[in-house]
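Note to self: the last two entries modelled the partners one at a time, which told us nothing about the interface. This time every component goes in together.
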Amino acid sequence: MTTIHKKLVLISILVLALALALVAVVGCGSSSSSGDATTAASTPFKVGVAGPMTGDYATYGKSHKEGAEIAMEELNAAGGVNGGQVSLEIGDDLGDPKQAVLVAQKYIDDAELVVVDGHQFSGATIAAGAKYETAGLPMISPSATNPDITDLGAYIWRICMTDAVQGEGLANYSVMTLNKQKIAIMYDNSDYGRGLADAYEAAVKAAGGSIVGKEQYATGDTDFKAQLTKLKGAGPDLLFLSGYYPEGSKIAQQARELGMDVQMLGSDGYASDELPKLGGAAVEGMLVSTFFDYTKNEAAVKKFVDAYKAKYGGGNPDWFAANSYDVVMLAAQAAKNAGKNERTAINDALGSIGTYQGIAGPVTFDENGDVIKPLQIVVVKNGALATAPQQPTQ
Amino acid sequence: MSELGQQLVNGLMIGCLYALIAVGYTMVYGIIELINFAFGELFMFGAFITIMMMSPEITLFGNTVGMPHLNFFLAIIIAMAVVAVMGVTIERLAYRPLRNAPRLAALISAIGVSILLQNVAQSIFGSQQVPFPDIPLFTTPAGAPRAFALGGVYITYFQVFVVVVTVVVMLLLNFYVKRTRMGRAMRASAQDKRTSALMGVNVNKVIALTFLIGSAMGALAGGLYGGVYHAAWPLMGFNPGLKAFIAAVLGGIGNIPGAFLGGLLLGVIEALGSAYLPMGSQYRDAIAFVILILILSFRPSGLLGSTVSQKA
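The predicted structure of the combined assembly is written out below.
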């Protein structure tokens, strides 16, 4: 082979790297969906709905957008918010902090946009949240769980519990309720996966259990056998999985292919109907932490589930959709309390909202903008999620 | 000890899949000096078409469509055939018009095709992962993988099948290129397209055939990969495609046994690296690229590549 060949290969790599950068930029498209024509007289209520709408994590963005759309329709059917038509501005952050900042800037520059329903991933939320705080645009994340997020400031809220709170709850559940002592952890090395795994580890130790192994992987990985082989050697009686279901279903399948028979407990990122669909028999019996139980016998829950199924056909809404719905409804309630569709007024009203009864549980904010909510556990049973027989003691 | 054995088996498994895609890269590069980045996407289509053929029904463009519900072996052969035709079509439409253009033009065209195919797949199959149906021969009726333990090392029947298929395919291909008339035409075209043409070799036909075989291998790898990881998704081809490219460079680009060796080595190094290096699993992909840089720096012709200059 000559140097020409060597150069060609090098050039190929360079071109490829450039192309990748290009894809990342082009991927930052966005679309907006809005309700009917705005009544001229009143201020519209425009909500930024930000999440990964395309790319590997588009499935989360889809749920997020759908939940917000149901809320928009319901609000508009009831005459809008403070007389203003509700509309959504969809922002695609690809789950990527770099894209999230671009979306945030677009929202900040849009004078009609009064509140942000998002972002979804913790990394993206931290990056975008700093911009919202500076600009004074209230942001309510339906799903970003990293503990640091609400420390960004007074305009940053969330209605899902933090990784720290969930981690501690799941640790107590593992050690006290399930009575497991030798626990292994496998986590997604993202802000979310790592934050939750660390909180869990600390709380397990505090509760008297022992961590016999801790392995990590990157989001989007497909092969986990190297890590699982090591964990198998440690002989755990519970494997805690901190991450998302696309990797989780493969972890469960590969664990079985390595002859590893262990009870698994998945974090809230596993709570999706896609988990049993992708994981098949391998995820049967897996326990999963969730923030929304769609089987709940409550009028508001049923109304949402029915509207969702009617509009999007078939599948049950996951908690990403439910929390996104709750965020829009909560923001609308705050705007109504404030009496006007204005950023700072809405933010002030969020601070004095008391307890808001959402479909995914009651929302109460602490002084930090974090939510106080109960933890729920479901189990994969006959290819579907069902309420687990053993629930955490509150 | 059984842990090391298990890690080796894990690595060999991925290595076989890399090797199958690497063959496509290496054959095409050997002849027209084009890195066909679209092989990663043809690999992805191989997985999707295999799933389509195996399912009683599947969602396409958001609509549920009836499907033939064939067995895995028939399905993967159909996938190979369909993808082979796709590969030849891509060559005809996207690369042949650029045959005499600067090489970078063809390379950029290859990247364009690759992105196009990803987006086409996303609109056809959706962005979610599609589960791979269980294969009865390799799965118990309860849905558990059929496997055996060998001194504490777990091996599934499907893994054995993948290794056997890879080895057989590599031997057949090597035989075809080394011993048949068409293979000789391929080797001649790789050395000098003009002189081969003067000797009566139909170079266009040889190139089309190379794409045909390379794409079919990609589809085979995709179908097997889908079976190993129980799913297919539109972006699944990107990473294995890159790894296969590295495997091809590692083994000596243009060299079929080299692609096989490069694939296996890369798979094993990755598995052992992510298991035994500190924080190794975090750097799984980086390991492959470090190998690429080392190879390009110290032995650019690859492990089995000839050090003799092919062309001026």
